[in-house]
């Protein structure tokens, strides 16, 4: 790190759990964020501000006026622009030291596999089950930690699937893919704007902890938030030994 970076990240470095070594690990790390919407916006903002070395942002959608109520990485001037491109502009303004790569096309599973292979951690900030299941399969295959978040209405959830550990459950353990899942989208059901910020920043915290190797992650635990009543709950998650994705004989 150069002198400007030492000054920029000094409040991290002052924390004994992070110190110089932890911050240096962060600045040498690469995260993949799938989705630059309600969850991806705060996650990307805090990871860039906190000193991540490189971020790859995937989103094929364009910014719409209805997004601005909660997708805080975008501005009014971003309407009509690809979300990944809009996110890159904001992140570069916050921290020009962070390398921001954009993926503006809808990714195939093969494309996702290459992106995940090049990353140290994956944040699932998507809003559809097909993407979630694909990221889960590929992260398990490549043994990459996956930070999963979701939010709708006044309720959200976060967990970590750390496939570097054999005992970690996976997304399919939690929500088996039987083909009957109904998509829940903000555009159709509504979402309270601060909720996605709370879930997205929690995803950022978990990802940064994983990259620095500090603290205890949410692996094996599902963190649930009811923001209307401001209640956090934690549910223990176990590995499904009949899971079609992560079960090994």
Portion of residues in helices? 25-40%
Task: Enumerate the spans where pLDDT stays under 50 for 5 or more consecutive residues.
Answer: none
The Cα radius of gyration reads: 17 Å
Q: How would you classify the helix and strand content by structural class?
A: alpha/beta
- Secondary-structure element order, N to C: HHHEHEHEHEHEEHHHEE
User: In CATH, what is the class?
Assistant: Alpha Beta
Which descriptor suits the 3D outline? globular
The name of the CATH topology is Rossmann fold
User: In whole angstroms, how far apart are the ends?
Assistant: 45 Å
Structure in words:
The structure is a single chain. Helices cover 37% and strands 18% of the residues. The mean pLDDT is 94. β2, α5 and β3 form a beta-alpha-beta unit. The protein has an eight-stranded mixed beta sheet, with helices on both faces. The chain has 249 residues and is of the alpha/beta class.
Q: Which key terms come to mind for this protein?
A:
alpha/beta; Rossmann fold; eight-stranded mixed beta sheet; 10 helices; 37% helix; globular
In a few lines, what is going on in this structure?
The chain has 249 residues and is of the alpha/beta class.
């Amino acid at each position: 790190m150069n002198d400007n970076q030492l000054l920029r990240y000094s409040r991290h470095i002052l924390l004994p759990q992070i110190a110089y070594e932890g911050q240096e690990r962060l600045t040498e790390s690469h995260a993949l964020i799938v989705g630059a919407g309600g969850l991806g916006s705060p996650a990307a903002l805090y990871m860039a501000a906190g000193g991540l070395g490189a971020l790859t942002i995937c989103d094929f959608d364009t910014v719409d006026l209805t997004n601005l109520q909660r997708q805080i990485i975008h501005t009014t001037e971003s309407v009509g622009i690809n979300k990944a491109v809009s996110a890159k502009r904001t992140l570069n303004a916050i921290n020009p030291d962070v390398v921001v790569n954009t993926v503006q096309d809808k990714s195939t599973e093969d494309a996702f596999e290459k992106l995940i292979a090049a990353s140290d951690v994956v944040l699932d900030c998507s809003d559809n089950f097909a993407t979630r299941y694909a990221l889960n399969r590929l992260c398990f295959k490549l043994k990459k930690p996956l930070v999963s978040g979701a939010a709708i209405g006044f309720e959200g959830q976060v967990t970590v699937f750390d496939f570097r550990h054999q005992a970690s459950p996976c997304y399919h353990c939690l929500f088996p893919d039987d083909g009957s899942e109904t998509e829940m989208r903000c555009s159709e059901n509504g979402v309270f704007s601060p909720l996605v910020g709370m879930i997205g920043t929690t995803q950022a915290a978990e990802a940064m902890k994983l990259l620095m190797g500090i603290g205890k992650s949410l692996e094996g635990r599902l963190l649930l938030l009811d923001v209307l009543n401001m209640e956090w709950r934690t549910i223990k998650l176990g590995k499904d030994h009949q899971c079609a994705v992560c079960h090994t004989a």
